[in-house]
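This part of the workshop introduces the protein records we will be handling. A record pairs a protein's sequence with a compact description of its fold. As an example, a complete record with its sequence and its structure tokens follows.

_____
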Amino acid sequence: MSEAKTAGRTPREGPLSGVRVVELAGIGPGPFAAMLLADLGADVVRVDRPGGPGIAIDPAHDVTNRNKRSVIVDLKAPDGPDRVLDLAARADVLIEGYRPGVAERLGVGPGPCHARNPRLVYGRMTGWGQDGPLARRAGHDIGYIALTGALGMIGAPDGPPAVPANLLGDYAGGSLYLVVGILAALHHARATGTGQVVDAAIVDGTAHLSAMIHGMLSAGTWQDRRGANLLDGGCPFYGSYETADGRYMAVGALEPQFYAEFMELLGIPGQAPARDDLARWGELREAIAARFKARTRDEWTAVFEDSDACVAPVLSLREAPHHPHLAARGTFTDHGGITQPAPAPRFSATPTAVRTGPARPGADTEAVARDWDLPPRWALPSEWDPPHDPQANSPVKNPQ
């Protein structure tokens, strides 16, 4: 593993301290995976392209670039590939999210990278994977989860599937599986001295997430249609209900003892159909819905507070950081004026932190060249490098 220099660097924290990661800039799951590695303490250098990544967000607010540093390289310039290979030669991990074959055409595919650094873990993030009939087709999260059957499970039976933002495909089926693969391959590289390619496809990861559902389907305990099962909203005591003020409460009272407490606090014990009478689930849902409509969300929150009824208010993104439990745990943090999720998970011996705000494109070229001991060509300023700003990525300790 690389021994990065610490001069001029941010404080190094987390279990991946000392691991060097090169991220070839993209959008979506690749940057999120690199952010997770950076949150865990890795020294992540994002290689931005001239003109930016093509996503309409101010770089100062792009939280997925926190805890990273940035350099700008034009991979189509004569020295562009060599500059990336200079980084790869000194890195433990490289992440790219191009369509299959693009990195090879640019001269920064696994072949030349491993020729410079046989220990390198080369992580590839795509939607369709590196092979297969759709491998070279464009796509987005919604299409990937549609093809795997995951999207078809979500939503009411009498309406279209509900779109779960891009959390299920891009980040759960994509980023998290890429990170798991990278960490496993990094463990292998440390043990054997041999790197490898990690092919993380969103379709593969999303399909893998549905393993339990496929088992239930095989056993005959899951129906292959929306809104008809225990965990997809078909069950009247596992779903969400509108309150008097147009907000919602989430109910997950699956176990009999939790269900009994739920019905008692809801105020209709013995007045509704039995929970195990599936033929009368519609009646039970109507009875529960009518009760929830009688009070506001905050009133019901107070009723179920400190109970084991497994009921919670459905909060908005702006409300969530202020919930007493999340506030007590520091689940969210404020850094540089941006409220954002704190790094997760947590470690007893190697705590993590939001060390720096989003990396500004090209702001760290000088520091990276020094810390990674890059060759002389990196000492020449690029026409895309912004003027040096010592405050652009200054370390600020996570207050939690």
